[in-house]
Amino acid sequence: MVEMIIQEVAGGVSVEMDGQLTEAEQDEVAHKVRWMLDLEQDFSAFYTLVREEPKLAHVEERAQGRLLRCPTLFEDTVKTILTTNTSWAGTIRMVEALVARFGDPLSADTTRRAFPMPEQLAARGATALCSAAGLGYRAPYVVELARAVDSGELDLESLKTTDMPTAELRKHLLAIKGVGGYAAANLLMILGHYDFVPVDSWALKTVSREWYGGEVVEQAEVEASFEGWGEWKGLVYWFWDWSYRDEGGDEKKENIEDEKPVIPAI
After folding, report:
1. What is the pTM of this model?
2. Whether 256 contacts 244, CB under 8 Å
3. Cβ(256)–Cβ(206) below 8 Å
4. Percentage of the chain with pLDDT > 90?
5. Per-residue pLDDT tens digits for 164-178
6. Where in this chain does the record put each HhH-GPD domain (predicted)?
């Protein structure tokens, strides 16, 4: 396990590590950092598309569009599964419990732990993940995923560089137990494919408030609301300046925001 300290500095970020690294190790670290900070994508076409939309005027001004990602797609997939059918607070609780019970302590700070490796979770049964981390029905999915990755049966990392069309890539993601339409759309965004909107209860609620006067809407209405944005619709949804932010008091805003599963964005 390689430990890195990444922090913001004037004009960029710095990466600190203990010990001397070989040239190959330096290349690997650089690759990981570029992936985690989403530094290799070109958003010029996205900026051109949204430039005239008032609800997206802030995106180009702030150079937004990048999504913060985990070092491995395995970690992002597990965390995405843990966002299903729960609140954001519930997701945080489950992830923190997984790390506390099954992750290795960091040598630089033994009070902190790394996210568990596939082999660490593969060695545990669903019962252990339920009792130790409260994963509930998600536990068998996480264990099966960990075992498939650990055995080499499933190569998630190869999906980072695949040239397969979005529809085919989506089929691969949907074949993972525990990954449904919402989770697949979330993972597609992490992989740089924004053709789908991750529709969950938060999306239904905010789209209802934005365009339907609070009336009940279904997935079809959410998707129709962003259909005109083509291959960028997922990113448009993610950075849309929702009207609820200008409505009501701080308590209302906080209640809505607390329900939103988050891919950290910059």
Report:
1. 0.89
2. yes
3. yes
4. 76
5. 999 999 999 999 999
6. 82-245
